[in-house]
Amino acid sequence: MADSRETFLVNAFVTGWPVKHSRSPLIHNYWLKQFGIAGTYKAEAVSEEDFPAFIQGLKDGSSGYRGGNVTIPHKEQAFRLADRPDALAKELGASNTLWMENGQLNATNTDGYGFTANLDARHPGWDKIDRAVILGAGGASRAVIQAVRDRGIGEIHVVNRTVPRAQELADRFGPKVHAHSLQALSEAMSGAGLFVNTTSLGMDGGEVRQIDFSPLKDDAVVTDIVYVPLKTPLLAQAENQGFASVDGLGMLLHQAVPGFEKWFGHRPLVDEALRDLVIADMERHR
Ligand code: ATR
After folding, report:
1. Tens digit of pLDDT for each residue in 65-99?
2. Domains in the chain, start-ordered, CATH in brackets?
3. What angle do CA 134, 254, 57 make, to 5 degrees?
4. Annotation says 75 is catalytic
5. Which of 71, 197, 199, 252 to mutate to test the pocket of ligand 1 (most atoms within 8 A of CB)?
6. Which residues neighbour 31 within 8 Å (Cβ) at sequence distance 6 or greater?
7. Centroid of ligand 1 to alpha carbon of 140 (angstroms)
8. Which residues lie with the beta carbon below 6 Å from any ligand 1 atom?
9. Which band of pLDDT confidence, cut at 50, 70 and 90, is reported for residue 3?
10. Is the pTM of this model over 0.90?
């Protein structure tokens, strides 16, 4: 006899190319289990040329997904293909979170939220500062600049090897944002209360130059959006010089929160057990 109750399964995805290294399934499946939600969250490897068709399947309902996360290299295309990008996504020209609502594809970018929520959790009061330094002007630095600016930090100094890239971001994100060369790093750091590394320096154990953090305020916090290894050479240097540090793993965990809430209707918590789960996975795949 057929069961008259229908189980309504909500499905979400993370798509990228490649996507197999993504830790998003681990995070969202942890929360699905925690809430006991009848839902799925799966990785979808989609090439750039297949991405428009993938999005079409989301829009017309044929894919069975309510929404999902988008990672490299699809963030810009996702923004362009969305029906209703929000103001954050529009300013960045990139989106990492998509969801269907009233037949329309909505898009936002939660990387900046992830960045500030991580600092709020691990170094409360970090935003009571007048000046921040952001090292790097690549794709990853944009959401950080936007989020720090939107917290009301007075001066944001973007320091980059290629100055025109930093200047482009200063032009994009408004008069509070200033561009500098690496040679001007020390000067840019003078009196700053927050230092953020958004470059790939030190990733996967790569070499990194010695940075003198002493121009920062004594109670400044140093953070890195690279989280492999968890303690990057830059964070280790900052700690050795007596500065507080916050690792980048929390940014990954917190950026997942708004998406989960959109798709599955519950706002999840980033707890230590989740953090430990992801760290254990990082150790396994070292
Ligand atoms: P993402 O989108 O992940 O941020 P990206 O666009 O390639 O990646 O940017 C990488 C950032 O790391 C850039 O700021 C880059 O500086 P340039 O704009 O001058 O290329 C910075 N970066 C990478 N390797 C570097 C190195 N060896 N020294 C200094 N900066 C470096």
Report:
1. 999 999 999 999 999 999 999 999 999 999 999 99
2. 4-109+251-284 (3.40.50.10860), 116-247 (3.40.50.720)
3. 105
4. yes
5. 199
6. 37, 260, 264, 266, 268, 274
7. 9
8. 136-141, 160-162, 165, 198-201
9. very low
10. yes
